[in-house]
Design goal:
Helix content is 19%, strand content 52%. By secondary structure, it is α+β, with helices and mostly antiparallel strands. The strands form two sheets. The chain has an eight-stranded antiparallel β-barrel. A two-stranded antiparallel sheet has the order 8-9.
Length: 181
Amino acid sequence: MKKNLYLFFLLLSSFVGKTQSNPALNSALNAYPSVKLNMVYVQLFGNGIVLSANYERQLFKKPGFGIHAGIGICGEEGFYWNGTYRITIPVGINYLLPLKRNNRFIDFGIGATYAKSDMQVYMLVEHRNPNYVNTHYWSLVPSVSKRITTRRHMMYRYGFSPVINQYGFIPFIEFAMGKSF
């Protein structure tokens, strides 16, 4: 038993030593000593389908995992605007991969967006009307984008974020602009 325990700790210490002595990883993370943890931004053609206002929170002081949520609008049939609109609620997670230049990242994310057109009367209509037609749907929104943060903590992002829902696969080029704090 002691022999197995000794072998386990020896193996564990060799892995810890390897990760601590990786100069490429250390230099990439030390180039970004900290990031602002909070961000608000407006996004066009992204997780909010057409237009959304979002809040994002980085989970650690170094670039890495983050979560975001917001509220937005889209057309009745997804992107296509036919005079009516849907309220959207985008949520998701993302990962920031630092690039060699300071304040530039590759942003990998996955999100889900809930879209609903009769938000105000939903509770009254659905249960009382036998001819009620479902007016909500979920969308899956993966994304890959480039994020640039300025010295004044402004954020600019552009990338590819397709929307996958009941209307099919809709490829979007997303744009976002916001402020870190």
